[in-house]
Specification:
The protein is mostly helical. The chain has one domain: Glycosyltransferase (Alpha/alpha barrel). The protein contains 18 helices and nine strands. The strands form four sheets. The protein has a three-stranded antiparallel β-sheet with strand order 3-6-7. A hairpin with a 4-residue loop joins strand 4 and strand 5. The protein starts with a helix and ends with a helix. The protein binds (2R)-2,3-dihydroxypropanoic acid. (2R)-2,3-dihydroxypropanoic acid binds next to loops.
Length: 417
């Protein structure tokens, strides 16, 4: 595997645009939020300074209200749509107006723990920014204080076109969207990307935010899409726990207390995403109080968050084994036994290395080392077979989406380190 180690490092170096890393050339030519966090984890395997630089450039994009945006448009590049004009934000550099799964605190804690003395100053700076971001989630996205944060766009889930979003999206009015030219399908085959009717809704939601000047109160009151994603809520809960631990290590008791309080509230909220009917944790449409009726890989992410009650874990583990037995490689992003499963279309079936990393971390932490290993073995086998693709078919392992993908390279390094 030495060759693949070298190749993974080379991909990160090649996608480095000078202090920030693009997910892949062409399809995603800017800095993406959770991609950057995973990229930092990858760089940490061989260049800890560069890892901290990635964290720094991501958090430098933080808005005055605390949000850390999903895209930072570091240098204008016409190969991507929707660009800065469509988002209509006012920061410099421009950014999108939405956020993405907050994995950063978990990864920052790891960077710090690798070399605590060396990383102290940068960890302290990141700690303050991350606390502000998490506080923003708690207020802007959970104004009622129920312990569940909402997403206002499927792109905030990072799992962009899961079948879970189909019904909440069906209520989004697209009559004012008008004509536009997609760029994603110029880089990747259309059968691996979202459908046009989904894209129309994505753009209608961007227009809603822009027309409301990305004002959190107006968005909370009126966003046509307002959904508690099980993935984002589990990732945030884990991030709060890691932030509290990091704050403790750095001697900041104020932040440690705040993060612990927020984590307690999220722990209660996450429990309410359990669905007996679906047999696992699912997303909840907060406008209609409707749970999703099918399981995605997100069902297993509460194990990564920690604190899953034993009776629920006892239902999740056999389900995961059943999924893994139904396909050649795991973990599919969506239930492979459901008719909506599609092995190559974006988030409706393919495997993502970053999701595997989180699920494996969760399983190992919950005492299922054998299953965690099985998932790591599958992840490495996929990369060995097909290269560093954005995602992979669970059926035959073929690579899908963008190639030479930064976070796939990062996870290779993190899983072999
Ligand atoms: C996309 O697919 O273009 C989204 O921006 C991903 O975040």
């Amino acid at each position: 595997d030495t060759k693949l180690d070298l190749r993974a490092k080379e991909i990160l170096r090649t996608n480095d645009r000078g202090g920030y890393t693009v997910p892949t050339a062409g399809l995603y030519p800017y800095q993406w939020n959770w991609d950057s966090a995973f990229v930092a984890l990858g760089f940490a395997a061989f260049d800890i300074d560069r890892a901290w630089t990635e964290v720094g450039s991501l958090l430098a994009g933080q808005w005055p209200d605390g949000m850390v945006p999903h895209i930072i448009f570091q240098r204008v590049d016409d190969s991507y749509f929707p660009g800065p004009d469509q988002w209509g934000t006012t920061t410099s550099p421009p950014t999108s107006g939405i956020t993405q799964p907050p994995v950063a605190a978990t990864i920052v804690r790891r960077l710090h723990d690798l070399e605590p003395a060396k990383g102290r100053r940068r960890a302290e700076a990141a700690l303050v920014a991350l606390d502000r971001w998490h506080e923003w989630f708690a207020t802007a996205r959970d104004p009622a204080g129920r312990g569940l944060v909402a997403i206002i766009h499927p792109w905030e889930s990072g799992r962009d076109n899961l079948p879970d979003w189909d019904r909440p999206l069906s209520f989004v009015d697209t009559s004012k969207v008008g004509a536009y030219e997609r760029r994603d399908t110029q880089h990747v085959a259309a059968d691996q990307r979202p459908h046009q009717h989904e894209y129309d809704r994505y753009l209608a939601l961007v227009a809603f935010g822009r027309d409301n000047h990305w004002d959190p109160a107006a968005i909370a009151a009126g966003s046509p899409f307002w959904v508690a994603d099980v993935g984002v809520n589990a990732i945030l809960l884990r991030a709060e726990r890691d932030l509290a631990a990091l704050a403790g290590a750095l001697g900041d008791s104020d932040i440690a207390d705040r993060a612990t309080r927020r984590a307690e509230r999220l722990q209660d909220g996450l429990a309410s995403l359990w669905s007996d009917a679906a047999g696992g944790y699912v997303s909840l449409d907060l406008r209609r109080e409707e749970h999703a009726t099918t399981l995605s890989a997100g069902a297993f992410l509460p194990l990564y968050a920690g604190g899953v009650p034993a009776d629920r874990a006892e239902r999740l583990i056999p389900t995961l084994r059943h999924w893994l037995d139904a396909v050649r490689y795991g973990v599919p992003s969506f239930d492979p036994t459901d008719p909506q499963f599609d092995p190559i279309r974006y988030w409706r079936g393919p495997i993502w290395a970053v999701v595997n990393w989180m699920i494996a971390e969760g399983l190992a932490g919950a005492g299922h080392a054998d299953l965690a290993d099985r998932i790591r073995v599958d992840t490495r086998a996929l990369i060995r077979q097909s290269g560093f693709y954005e995602s992979f078919s669970p059926i035959d392992g073929r690579g899908c989406g963008g190639k030479d993908f930064s976070w796939t390279a990062a996870i290779w390094l993190a899983m072999t380190a």
